[in-house]
Each structure stands twice: as structure tokens, then as C-alpha cells.
TrEMBL record:
Cellular component terms (Gene Ontology): cytosol
PROSITE patterns linked to this entry: SAICAR_SYNTHETASE_1, SAICAR_SYNTHETASE_2
Recorded catalytic activity of this chain's protein: 5-amino-1-(5-phospho-D-ribosyl)imidazole-4-carboxylate + L-aspartate + ATP = (2S)-2-[5-amino-1-(5-phospho-beta-D-ribosyl)imidazole-4-carboxamido]succinate + ADP + phosphate + 2 H(+)
UniProt key word ATP-binding: yes
Biological or metabolic pathway of the protein: Purine metabolism; IMP biosynthesis via de novo pathway; 5-amino-1-(5-phospho-D-ribosyl)imidazole-4-carboxamide from 5-amino-1-(5-phospho-D-ribosyl)imidazole-4-carboxylate: step 1/2
Name listed for the protein in its UniProt record: Phosphoribosylaminoimidazole-succinocarboxamide synthase
Gene3D superfamilies assigned: ATP-grasp fold, B domain (3.30.470.20), Phosphorylase Kinase, domain 1 (3.30.200.20)
Domain of life according to the entry: Bacteria
EC number: 6.3.2.6
Keywords: ATP-binding, Ligase, Nucleotide-binding, Purine biosynthesis
One GO term (biological process): 'de novo' IMP biosynthetic process
GO molecular function, one term: phosphoribosylaminoimidazolesuccinocarboxamide synthase activity
Organism in which the protein naturally occurs: Pelagimonas varians
HAMAP family assigned: SAICAR_synth (MF_00137)
Amino acid sequence: MARRKKIYEGKAKTLYEGPEPGTIVQYFKDDATAFNAEKKDVIDGKGVLNNILSEYFMVGLGAVGVPTHFIKRLNMREQLVRSCEIIPLEVIVRNYAAGTMSKRLGIEEGTALPRPIVEYCYKDDSLGDPLVTEEHIAAFGWASQQDMDDIIALALRVNDFMSGVMYSVGIRLVDFKIEIGRTYDGDFQRLVVADEISPDSCRLWDIETGRKLDKDVFRRDLGSLTDAYTEVANRLGVMPKQSVQPTKPTLIN
Ligand code: 5GP
């Protein structure tokens, strides 16, 4: 079988050239990293869970009219996506204080914010993805003013959708990170939600107990990451089913 051309290997995913021009295969790895890869592990089944959860969120976003790069899931670890130019920003939306916002501003984790707050980090591992302002983004030409208007609108629509989906299964969407890609149809350019949306890139807390069901379980050594992600997938009803029942031997007369 012909080997596929690897385009990029990231911390949690590998990208391969897709079967058609303008497509890419995203392979979800089991590797988990935190604190800019200072903490690393391999967590059995994480890639499968993130592939299925990201498919679920991207398909749902598409159904409510939010453009994404997602085309289809190919198998347990791979999905086909449209290739796009990734804008070098991590777009973070926060509904409750947590993580770096709590540290930076001294706000207790879990404090409800007066309204969703959108932040941007410049995607550069060697710099630790620093927080930047719209001034930096405009001055360094990472995105235009029109792009920024579109990015904020997309991020808030993703927030509304994801908050509702999570609330319906008893989970609070504390915050999340998305990446935005630029796609071209001839001369027409549009921005789409790219990369992945999964418990790796969201903070998800059980509404009743506050139990963490996201990557903080790994970052903060709070137990089994697979159990946490499986709980999210189970509540959403997207756990892969045992599709093939073992067959009994048939007696042939
Ligand atoms: P914080 O800035 O508090 O570390 O993260 C805010 C939100 O964005 C959290 O949901 C976190 O999981 C997500 N996030 C921030 N940076 C990254 C990143 O580099 N990779 C991933 N997967 N998620 C991130």
C-alpha cells in the first residue's frame, strides 16, 4: 500500500495529505502534553475519544450554520477535513474564570464572568503561546479588522452552541480554545472553525459536583483522563458501540 505523505506532526495530531486536492486527513494520537510539553504521557484511547467528540461538535456546528473545516470521520482515529491556512492565533472564550485568567487576575476559579470574554494567544510553542491584543494582531498582520469581526462572531456562536450542548447533559462549559482557518473558493475567502473541539481544548465541569471532565484531569493529576472523556462521550450518547456481535458456530447438516 502506498505510504501517505505526512504534512505536519503536532503534539496531539498528525496531518496527512488527503485523497483529493484541498483535503487533509487528521490522525488523532493518544499523546497528551501540558505546560508547553513539559508534562507528557500516552493515554490509551484518548485519540479515539477526541476524534469522535470533535466530529460530534463540528457536525453540530455545521448543522446550525457555523462553517467548519470538517468533512467526515474516516475511522476510529482519522477524519477528513478541508485544508485551510491556520490563522496563528488561539482564540479562547471564557464563561467562568479558570486557568491562566484566574492566575493572571487573581480571580477564584469558577467565578461567573459578567459576559463571555474572548482572548487571543499567539500560536508559538517556543514563546509559550503568549496572550496578545487586537493591536498586536493588526500591527503584525496576523488577521485583518474584517477577519477579527468574523473571528469574534464565530467564537461567540461556538460558545452558544457548545454551552447549550453541554448544559443539556449536565456539564458547564467553563472555557475553550478554537483555531480558525482561512479557506478559498476561487477568489472567495472565508473563515472556518478548524483543528479540533474536544475535552483537550475545553474546560468542562459537572454542574452538580464541579468534577472536572477535561484535560485539567491530566494537567493537575486528578485521575483517569480516559474515564473523564468517556463520561463526556457517554453523556452525549456518542460512545462507539460494540458493533460486531460474536457469532455462534452454525451447524451444517
Ligand atoms: P488557559 O489559558 O486557562 O490555560 O486555557 C483556556 C482554555 O483554552 C482551556 O480550555 C484550555 O484547555 C484551552 N487551551 C489553551 N491553550 C491551549 C493549547 O495550547 N492547546 C489546547 N488543546 N487547549 C488550549
